[in-house]
Amino acid sequence: MMDPKKNKKIFSGFSYKYFFSNKKENLLQERSLKQEEKLATGNVVFPSNALVELTAGCNHSCVFCANPRMKIQGKKLDIDIYKKFVSEGKELGLKEIGFYMRGEPLLDKRLRTFIEIASKAGIKYIYITTNGARANIAKVKELIDAGLSSIKFSINAASRDAYRLVHGKDDFDKVIKNLKDLHEYKNKSDKEFKIMASFVVTKFTEDEIDEFKRVVIPYVDDAKILGVHGQMGQSLEELTILESTKLTAPFDKIDKAKPCPMLWNRIHLTQDGLLSLCCVDYDNNLIYADLRETTLKEAWNNKIINNMRERHTNGNIKGTLCYNCLYGKKEPLEPIMNCDLKLKPEKIVKRGEKSVLDRVLELRDRHEG
Ligand SMILES: C[S@@+](CC[C@H](N)C(=O)[O-])C[C@H]1O[C@@H](n2cnc3c(N)ncnc32)[C@H](O)[C@@H]1O
Ligand code: SF4
Ligand code: SF4
Fold first, then answer.
1. Interhelix angle for 79-92 vs 111-120, to 10°?
2. β-strands 222-227, 15-21: how paired?
């Protein structure tokens, strides 16, 4: 196993990260760095990678995530839109699909069917990122049989107590059991799949990094430990309290002269059949097309996305979510397209017994006390 102490801190995306691997190649690290490669700005080739959101609903309410405060309603993706996406995407060169975005993919019982459709269409790499509470061994075996290539468990604390406060649900023991059961199954079976994990570190949980290396890393192929970020300005208030002294990068570390590679490197299908520029577009501010009304090929080069590519290239993004994201602001913004969906008033939902704010304060007191 790679010695975690020798791991270098890498700045990637919006925070510092440590990558670990028990294998020769480190797929999580490769994926992260590939995602950031800057494509020639005029060169708009169709990307090989897509994220598909079965639902934006979630059963957890992590203190740093914008999910509990998003204004859209959790729904289910229409299967016919998805089939259209896969068949047109495959023609255009799509090779990988990740089933997650703003919500929890295992809340949708149809996940197995969606994976099967992608696998049968010839999509080479199919993966999910999950909080793992519903990833019991029977369920994950089903997904692997359907064609799942890898599963990443997001485990954002290394003790039951801190996990309950961070995730808002007392699921730590269940998630660790699910992870260990899967590890055992992998060792016994001849199935090809990868197990991964991530830990989003806050100021109040960074003293659990060593414990994470002990209780999680031995059971995975690859892992990453990363600093919490402000989710594109959408959970900035919490960030100022939660930012990790070791791993959260200051906003001046982000190179604003470079256009964001997300607009060139990946395509995002939301639960409503819409295409978004970004995986963390919690309130649909970066929707550029409605796949019910256009082809994927047209959408990928339509006026709205091309205008945003140009604005990113010229550094002219004020008034958009991208500006708040790159500059760490919460300034007024306009959606880049009117997609006519009903939005809820801004209110943080409470899942479980305690509110996000109460848990942030309890984490702080626990840390300081
Ligand atoms: C939004 S979640 C969706 C998938 C699934 N619900 C999960 O938690 O894995 C995708 C990833 O974003 C991470 N994440 C959420 N909020 C974050 C933040 N403020 N900073 C860094 N990562 C964050 C989660 O830990 C998870 O690994
Ligand atoms: S990080 Fe994942 S599990 Fe946590 S609230 Fe966000 S979507 Fe849900
Ligand atoms: S909000 Fe915009 S700038 Fe930020 S990651 Fe998403 S696409 Fe890139």
1. 30
2. antiparallel
Q: DSSP class of residue 248? A: B
Closest ligand 3 atom to Cα of 325 = 4
Check if 156 has its Cβ closer than 6 Å to any atom of ligand 1. Answer: yes
Q: In the beta sheet, which residues pair with residue 275?
A: 269, 289
**Which two three-digit tokens encode residue 168?**
């808002």
Q: How far is the CA of 230 from the centre of ligand 2 (A)?
A: 14
Phi, psi of 128 (to 5 degrees): -135, 155
Nearest atom within ligand 3 for CA of residue 14: 5
Query: What residues contact residue 134 under an 8 Å CB cut-off, 6+ apart?
Result: 59, 104, 106, 107
Chain-centre distance of CA 124, in angstroms?
20
The yes-or-no verdict on residue 152 having pLDDT over 70 is yes
Identify the residue whose C-alpha is closest to ligand 2 atom 4. 62
Residues 243-274 pLDDT 10s:
888 888 776 777 777 888 899 999 999 999 99
Confirm whether pTM is higher than 0.85: yes
Structure tokens at 37: 């490669």
The beta strand positions in the chain, using DSSP E, are 10-12, 15-21, 49-52, 96-98, 125-130, 150-154, 194-201, 222-227, 266-269, 274-276, 287-290
What pLDDT digit, counting tens, does each position of 181-236 carry? 999 999 999 999 999 999 999 999 999 999 999 999 999 999 999 999 875 665 55
